[in-house]
Structure formats: structure tokens, C-alpha cells
Design goal:
With 90 residues, this protein is an alpha+beta fold. It contains 2 helices and 5 strands; from the N terminus they run αβββββα. It is globular and about 40 Å long. It comes from Veronia nyctiphanis. This is Transcriptional regulator.
């Protein structure tokens, strides 16, 4: 994102992400481009009692390839789901 885009609020184009289902949760990997590398970023979602709950997931890991960041995000999200379960939404 250029300086002027940031300054004037121009948004980056988002592409539709195919989620990965894990134990009833949906994991959306959305690596964030930063200086030619990619930060682990995404969402963990679950519908409970008709309400969609969303946990935004961002980590300090920066990787050189987008596909590597996608794979690592999914693996870390699965570990987070195993550790936290639905309490991540509290």
C-alpha cells in the first residue's frame, strides 16, 4: 500500500478466501503483505445459536512466500482452537 493510499484511506482489494473447516470452526487464512513478505493473518469463525462469532488472528511471524504464510496460519489456528475452543470468543 503506497503512502498516499494509506493517507487517504484507500483500501486494499480483498479476494474471496476459501475457508478450512476444523472441529466446527472455519479458518480463513488472509496473509498480509508487508514489504515483499507476508505476515500470518486471518480469521477463525464459528456460528453458535444463529450468531456468527469471529476471532481475528494475527501473529508476528513474517514469511517470504504467501503460500507458506497460509499453511502456517492454518496450522497455528488449529493449535489455537485445540487450546482455547469457543472461549476465544469471550
Amino acid at each position: 500500500m503506497s503512502f498516499f493510499s494509506w493517507l487517504f484511506g484507500e483500501k486494499e482489494q480483498k479476494t474471496e478466501v476459501e475457508p478450512t473447516e476444523y472441529k466446527g470452526f472455519l479458518i480463513y487464512s488472509e496473509p498480509k503483505s508487508e514489504g515483499g513478505q507476508y505476515r500470518i493473518n486471518g480469521r477463525i469463525c464459528k456460528e453458535t445459536d444463529g450468531e456468527l462469532k469471529i476471532h481475528h488472528f494475527i501473529r508476528s511471524d513474517i514469511l517470504p512466500a504467501e503460500n507458506t504464510a497460509t499453511e502456517l496460519m492454518i496450522n497455528k489456528a488449529k493449535m489455537y482452537i485445540d487450546q482455547m475452543g469457543e472461549s476465544m470468543f469471550n
